[in-house]
């Protein structure tokens, strides 16, 4: 019997209850990360139980990986050691919600769908329109750092997470920030947890600022035959008084994906394939408001599209917005379903340089006959999907070379690039976390401070921290 399942099983059972400690291999398979299966999984029902489990792991020198709905466990590197899966799905409660004060506190295992339904009943929402919306947990969403088309207007989670309760590597329950918007107490240590892949701590409760649901949402689509014209329109919007909710450029290949059966499986709302009938570059803009505001946006966007040389332009009615927006939101799972060995790169650079970065990547991929698709946020973040036809070693070697070249060219453009998803057997050939970081020594110090025993997700993050 393994160390975790043997010596520790009775203590784990005394903490969380015997029915919430798993050691059957068939039940542990869903917790596997890149083929590495933990020796046990435990499902605490409270933050106190979770803290006791972490204390046990620290004392017995066991490693654990926190998880929720497990939609993003394939991100990052394989764990160097994986004794225990800490399943937070039972921590799924809405702890406090004050619609009048626009504040919400939830446990980390609560799902985005459940939170969304509770807020919508009061005409509010969280601007976390992220992939895997149907099943993702709030804790996993924040830990993975995946972003949303709504970052154009609302920013990222860093801008509306007010505070957090989390567990450090020695099992201490720590708190940072607060539950109210006007909180100025202490340091924002909780922001270090965002995007840290569960390597610094275990989030147990998060406090948010909420927002009113957008009124009468609309979408605008302008199609271009040349990429420079699409980016010209993007720049014109940025320099205009308009402040759209979303602004994304869809590159050739995306319309076909959005009309595919893979997209229909991910997004329930109906979709008109004519929405993105163009095979060129599409500038998509989301906006909302009163009739007067909607009319102003439609008129101004049509004017900007005409000036930029659009081949076509159209405003989508409210009933057509969910299907189109949902596909933008679910771009990552759609492309994961579209190939047996999808590789997804996240590219970050100045918006003025994104066209060049994507053009260079496209030229590299075209020269090697690799199918690809990409979507670029107006704020300077792009998602590039390589879509090979097979998963052979030869294909993996070729794509690793191409992906690493794209990482280098992005760094040369003073940007940053990482590989979010790829087949597990290819990870040893790819620079998953991109170019070497100048702040890596500081990252190691933070890891040593929050998790001195290396309990959390060892080896999963940048540089093996």
Overview of this protein structure:
With about 475 residues, this protein is α+β, with helices and mostly antiparallel strands. It folds into four domains: about 5-90, Uridine Diphospho-n-acetylenolpyruvylglucosamine Reductase, domain 2, CATH 3.30.43; about 95-210, Uridine Diphospho-n-acetylenolpyruvylglucosamine Reductase, domain 3, CATH 3.30.465.10; about 220-330, Alpha-Beta Plaits, CATH 3.30.70.2190; about 340-430, Alpha-Beta Plaits (2-Layer Sandwich), CATH 3.30.70.260. About 35% of the residues lie in helices and about 20% in strands. An eight-stranded antiparallel β-sheet has the order 15-12-14-13-17-18-16-19, sandwiched between helices. It has a five-stranded antiparallel β-sheet with strand order 5-6-10-8-9. A four-stranded mixed β-sheet has the order 1-2-4-3. A hairpin with a 4-residue loop joins strand 5 and strand 6. Helix 2 (about 10-15) runs antiparallel to helix 4 and helix 14 (about 350-365) runs antiparallel to helix 15. Mean pLDDT is about 95; it is low at about 1-5.
- Gross morphology: globular
What is the count of β-strands? 19
- Number of domains as seen in the coordinates: 4
| CATH topological fold name of the largest domain | Uridine Diphospho-n-acetylenolpyruvylglucosamine Reductase, domain 3
Percentage of residues in strands: 15-25%
Q: What percentage of residues falls in helices of 4 or more residues?
A: 25-40%
CATH architectural group of the largest domain? 2-Layer Sandwich
Identify the CATH class of the largest domain: Alpha Beta
Tally the helices.
16
